[in-house]
Amino acid sequence: MKQTLQNRFPRWWLLLAFVLNFAIAAAALLPYMIRDGGLLLVAADFDAEQLSYNMLCNNAIKSGEVLWNWRIDIGSDFVSSFSFYTLGSPFFWLSFLFPASAFPYLVGWIYMLKYAVAGLTSFAYFRRSASEKSALLGSVLYAFSGFSCINVVFYHFHDVIALFPLLMLGLDKRMQEGKKAPFLFAVTINALVNYYFFIGEVFFLVFYYITRYLFGGEDARPGADLRKNARKIPACILEGCLGVGMAGVLFIPSIAAVLNNPRVSDHISLSQLTFDWPNYLQMLRALFFPAENMFNFSAVVHDNWYSIAAYLPLVGVCLVLAYLLRWKWDWLHVLLVGLFLVAASPVSNSLFVMFTSEPYRRWYYMLVFLLVLATIKVLDHLQDYPWRAGCGISAAVIAAITLYLYVKRDTIVYRKYWLVVLTLIAIGGVVLLFAALGGVRRLRLRRPMAALTACTALVAALTTGFTVGTYQRAYTQTIGLTTTEIYGDVIHSGDGLPDALPYRYYFWEPYSNRGMAAYLPDRTSFLSTLSPSIFTLYDALGDERHAITPAGPEGTNELLSVGYYIRNNSDWPDEIYTSFSNGHEQINVYQDSHALPIGFCYDTYMTRSEFDEIDPAERAHSMLKTLVVADEDEATVSTILRHYDAALDGKISQENKYADMDKRREACTDVFDYGTDYFYSEITSGSEQYAFFSVPYDKAWSATVNGESAEILNINGLMAVKVNAGKNCIRFHYSPTPLWCGIGVSAISILLTAIYLLAGRRSRKSKKEVL
User: Fold this and answer.
1) I want to staple 197 with a disulfide (CB 3.0 to 4.6 A). Which of 86, 160, 470, 767 is the partner?
2) pLDDT tens digit string along 62-80?
3) The pTM is what?
4) Structural domains counted in the chain
5) Do 472 and 492 share a structural domain?
6) Same-domain pairing of 297 and 354
7) Burial state string for 429-466 with b = 16 or more CB within 10 A and e = fewer than 16
8) pLDDT per residue as tens digits for the range 117-170
9) Do residue 147 and residue 276 come from a single domain?
10) Which residues lie below 8 Å from residue 715, measured CB to CB, with a gap of 6+?
C-alpha cells in the first residue's frame, strides 16, 4: 500500500501544478470576463486577429474550404495562411468542438488552460532537476513570466510557451534514459504548433545539446560525456527528422509559403553587430522589472511590438545572479552566459527569429525557462550559493535604472506613475524574497517555500491582471470604444450579410478583420501570412503592403471587384442597400451599381516596363484600362491583343474610370461558381481576348477554357487566360503541391516512426533475454 502511494504521489504534484496555474490565470482573467458578460477582450491584435482568425478557421474547416479560401483577403491558401496561428494548435481544435460564434466566450477559459498546461509541462521538466516544491514554484515562474505577461495580447504565442517544455523533457529522456518516443512526439507537436517558433527552438536545442551533453560533464569524467553523447547525435538527428516529417502536413506548405513571403525575406544585415543604448536599457528592464503593455511603455521607449520581457514574478533574477556568482561554469552557467551574449547582438538574436531584420525578442520564453531552472536549483541548495549577494545586486541594478530614468525623465519617461509602481513591485519582490529565505532572522518562516510560492502566485495574478487591464485601457482610450463595443464592432459588423462572390465587400477599416469574423469575402485584411502574390500586387500599385491591406490608389476597389461598401456612417455617395446594428451603432451597406464581377476581358495590353513609368496614383486606373503583362509575355499576347494607344483608347485617368469599366463589362462573367479547389466563370466575348481574374496568382492553379488547357499569365500578381470569340467556359483548378507533399511526408514518416520504435523495442527486449 505504501509503495502504491509513493508511485502515485508524483501524479498529485503534476495535478497540483496544473490546478495552481489554472487558478492563478483565473484570478487574473475572470474579473474582466465577469465584467464583460463572459467575454475576454484584451486589446489591439488580440481583438483584431485572434478572434477573427479562430472564427474564420472554425467556419472554413466546417464548410470544407481548406485548400483555397475566398474569405482570406482576395483569396489565399488556407493552410499556409493559418498554420502560424491556429491549425497546429491543440487548443484551437478544442474550440473547434463549438460553433465559431462561441469563440469570444471560450477564449478566456482556453487561455487559462494554456497557462495550466505551461505549468504542467514545465513542472514535469523541472522536477527532474529539483525538489517538488521548488519545481512547483518554477512552474508558476515560467507560466507567468514577464514574457507571458507582455504577450498576453498574442494569444497564439501561449501555445508555444505551453508546449515548449515537452521538447526539453523529450530530449532529456532520450539522452538520459534512452527513451525515443517522448522526443519524437515532442518534436512533432512543436513543429505542428508553430513552424516559426520551432525553427528558433531547433537552434536552442542545438546549443542545449552541445553545452549539456557534449561539454557539460555532469555525470562523468571530463571527456567521457563528449565521447558517449557524440555517438547519439545521428540518432537524435534521425528522430528529429522523423518528428518534423510527421508534422509535414503543416510544416512543408508553411515553409514553402514563407520562402516567398516578402515580410520574412527581409533578412538582417551582418553589419548590425550592436543595438543602440535604449535597446540595452530595455533588455535590463526586461529582466529586473515586471512586464508592461507594448502599446504604452512607462519609460525608455513609448511603444514597440518586439516582446522584450523576461521578468520572473517576485523573484526576478536575484537567484539567477546567485547561480552565476558561484562561478561554477557548469552547462547551465555557460548556456545562460551564451544566451545573454546572443541577446546582445542583432545578428545573433536573429538566429531565433528566422534571420529577419526586425529585432524581435520572441524567443525569450526559452531564456526564461533557463532562468527558472537556475532559480530553483539555487532554492534547493541555498547554502551553496551567494543568494544574499544576488538580492543585493538586483536591488542595486533596479535602483540604478530607476535613478537613471529619473534623471532623464523629461525625454524617456512616459508614464511616471506606472514607472513608480513597477519599481515598487520589483524592489518589493527582492525584499520579500530576502525575508522569505531567512535574510531577516526575526522573520524566518516555518515553511518558506510555501510562503514564497503563495506570494509568487499572488504577484503573478496581479501582474498578469494589471497588464490585461492596461492593454484594455490603452486600446479603448485610443479608439474611443468600450471592450463590449469593440466586440460588437469586430464580431457583429458583418452579421447576416450574404456571400457576395463574384463581388467582394469592403469594410471601412481593415485592421479589425470584420470580414473574417463574419466569414465574408472582404477585399482587405490584417494578416501577413497571405498569398505572396497579394504583396506583389500592391508593390506594383506603388502602395506597399506589410501586415494590413492598404487602400491602394484610386480604382483599386473597382479593379478588385468590390461590389458592397460597409460603413459605420452615412458618408457614402450610393444609396443604402441595407442597414443593421452591431450592438452599439448602425452599420450601413452600400451597393456599387457600377461594380465589375471577378472576371472581365481586355482587347489591349501594355508591358510591365511601361506600367512602371506611370504615376502610382494612376496605376489602378491603368489596370482597368488595359491588360498589364510581364515583358516576357508580350510576344504571347501581342498575337491576340493590340498594344494600348492613348489616342485610340483614351488616356488613363480617374475621369475615364467609369467608361473603362463599361468597356470591361462588355465581356465579363455571366455565371460564377467556386469551391475550395476551383472556380468557374462563363464569359461571352465578341473576339479573341484575355480574361482577367482578380485572384492571386499561384503555381498551384491550372486552367482550362472550353475543356482545353490554357496558359495562365501572371498579371501583377493576379491571373489572366486567353478566351475565344463566343461563349467561354473557364475553369481554374487549385492543387497545392506543397500540401500534398506534406501529407505524403507525414504518412511515410508515421509509418517509419512506427517501424523505428517497434524495432527499438524488440532490440531492447532481445538484449534483456540475452542477459
Assistant:
1) 160
2) 999 999 999 999 999 999 9
3) 0.95
4) 3
5) no
6) yes
7) bbebbbbbbebeeeeeeeebbeebbebbbebbbbbbbb
8) 999 999 999 999 999 999 999 999 999 999 999 999 999 999 999 999 999 999
9) yes
10) 623, 627, 628, 629, 692, 697
